[in-house]
Amino acid sequence: MKLNPSKDFLLVTGGCGYIGSHTTVVLQKAGFQVLILDNLKNSKPKVLSRIQEITGQRPEFVEGDIRDAKGLEALFQKYRVSACLHFAGLKAVGESVEQPLNYYENNVQGSLQLFKAMKEAGVKRLVFSSSATVYGQPKSLPLSESASRQAENPYGQTKLMIEHILEDLCRSDLDWSVMSLRYFNPVGAHPSGMIGEDPLGIPNNLMPYISQVAVGRRKKLQVFGNDYPTSDGTGIRDYIHVMDLAEGHLAALRAAFESTGFQALNLGTGKAASVLELVQAFEQASGVKIDYEIVQRRPGDIAECWADPRLAREKLNWSCQRGLIEMCADSWNWQQKNPQGYD
Ligand code: NAD
Ligand code: WQD
Predict the structure, then answer these.
(1) Is residue 164 situated within a structural domain?
(2) What is the domain count for the chain?
(3) Whose CA is nearest to atom 23 of ligand 2?
(4) Ligand 1 atom closest to Cα of residue 42
(5) Which residues are catalytic?
(6) pLDDT at 1
(7) Quick one: average pLDDT of 173-197?
(8) Domain CATH number, residue 122
(9) What is the average pLDDT across 109-136?
(10) Mean pLDDT calculated for residue range 195-212
(11) Is any atom of ligand 2 closer than 6 Å to the C-beta of 272?
(12) Rounded to the nearest 5 degrees, what angle is found at the Cα of 108, between the Cα atoms of 106 and 113?
């Protein structure tokens, strides 16, 4: 099947969320028609008009749930869909420990319903939002795709289970083409500052926490531990600009039309940054001093994690273009223009 940008729809589940909205912008700019399916559990419909302001085109939108088999059937009957980018899911690690059944139901059961509806409709190209969390505690660094997988919390388990389901599906039917993209730590925002990350309540993740401190919504950052065996004792991660990530999805989509089978790929920069290095980069990019205090380690955190990004470069002809300062500058630009997020 050939990829026909302007004719068919790309179904983007969870397209109102942080990564899905940025990817929608990139897909539309590349000439694709996007149909978003989102239940708005963790996003606001206002993102649709923001996307329209950036791209000049409002994505089609269906408010609905991936767990709703009838709704999915109706959607595939109404729209001609050529491929799906599947972002919809719950993603808070701590919450997943408290509510495992909700996480397995939403993420695993929801994905199963989606894949069944796709199969029924003959749509067999998929780009899936996986996560570096499937590697668990790294045995060696950088992490390559062949590293063993060992999820350490219910959220990570859901990603791992979905990967297994997709591997089996691709083995059972050689027409399927699945790109499972294992994101490292997505940060930043569209350079316009029109769309960005808007977590509900207290941010779980580092960058939104820092930018809420910078804008005055929170008093100070708590740095979770400075006694790790790392250069400055704080945790080390591979932060990736969300626009690089979004462009990675476009490249993966194109690749999904040129190959079949299951392919897992790391989307990361391959560069490591500590918590304090990110704080410093943010201060440099924003000119705002970030107050912080060192507190206990966060249970379940790993010391360090970064990607071997070579396979994605080879398979997708894609690599990250944006550095730490640009990630911080764009996060700050979004936060400054939208101190309360989309509200
Ligand atoms: P997000 O919460 O901003 O976006 C997810 C979207 O999916 C939200 O708009 C939410 O309303 C929607 N959704 C959730 N359950 C749904 C359901 N049952 N039916 C329909 N819509 C539903 O999250 P994000 O940061 O944009 O992440 C997107 C995907 O990438 C998720 O699958 C997440 O697990 C994965 N991921 C995220 C990160 C990260 O750090 N942000 C890292 C690795 C992987
Ligand atoms: C980064 C570093 C913290 C907040 C999580 C999920 C993972 C993936 C991405 C979806 C760590 C430190 C953080 C704070 C801090 N999501 N930190 N103070 O933990 O690498 O990954 O998001 O798949 O599954 O686990 O990201 O941004 O929470 O933390 O000191 O207030 O910042 O200890 O070293 P993490 P993070």
Answers:
(1) yes
(2) 1
(3) 131
(4) 11
(5) 155
(6) 62
(7) 98
(8) 3.40.50.720
(9) 98
(10) 97
(11) no
(12) 85
Does 142 reside within a domain?
A: yes
> What CA–CA distances, in Å, run from 171 to 19, 59, 134, 235, 263?
29, 33, 21, 38, 12
Question: What is each CA distance from 148 to 120, 183, 243, 255, in whole angstroms?
Answer: 33, 16, 28, 25
Q: Which amino acid is at 6?
A: S
- Mean pLDDT across the chain, nearest whole number? 97
Q: Is residue 275 part of a domain?
A: no
Range(s) of the domain holding residue 74 = 9-188+239-268
Q: Write the pLDDT tens digit of every residue in 1-36.
A: 667 776 789 999 999 999 999 999 999 999 999 999
pLDDT tens, residue by residue, 49-68: 999 999 999 999 999 999 99
Is residue 328 within 8 Å of residue 287, measured between CB atoms? no
Q: Is pLDDT of 224 > 70?
A: yes
Q: 204 lies in a domain?
A: no
Cβ–ligand 2 distance for 301 under 6 Å, the answer: yes
**What is the structure's pLDDT at 7?**
77
- Cα 157 from Cα 151, distance rounded (Å): 5
Token pair of 311 as six digits? 């396979």
Q: How far apart are CA 188 and CA 196, in angstroms?
A: 7
What is the pLDDT, as a whole number, of residue 3?
Answer: 73
Dist. CA 287–CA 274, nearest whole Å: 19
Give every CB contact of residue 172 below 8 A, 6+ residues apart in sequence: none
Backbone angles phi, psi at 257, to 5 degrees: -90, -5
| pLDDT > 90 fraction of the chain, expressed in percent and rounded | 97
Give the residue-averaged pLDDT of 186-203.
Answer: 97
Ligand 2 pocket test: pick from 42, 298, 306, 331 the residue with the most ligand atoms within 8 Å of its Cβ.
Answer: 298
The pLDDT confidence band at residue 45, using thresholds 50, 70 and 90, is very high
Task: Tell me how far CA of residue 64 lies from CA of 41, 57, 122, 287, in angstroms.
Answer: 10, 21, 21, 42
Which one, of 137, 91, 145, 92, lies nearest residue 305 by Cα? 137
CA 152 to ligand 2 centroid distance, Å: 14
Q: Could you tell me the distance, in angstroms and rounded to a whole number, from the CA of residue 227 to the centre of ligand 1?
A: 32
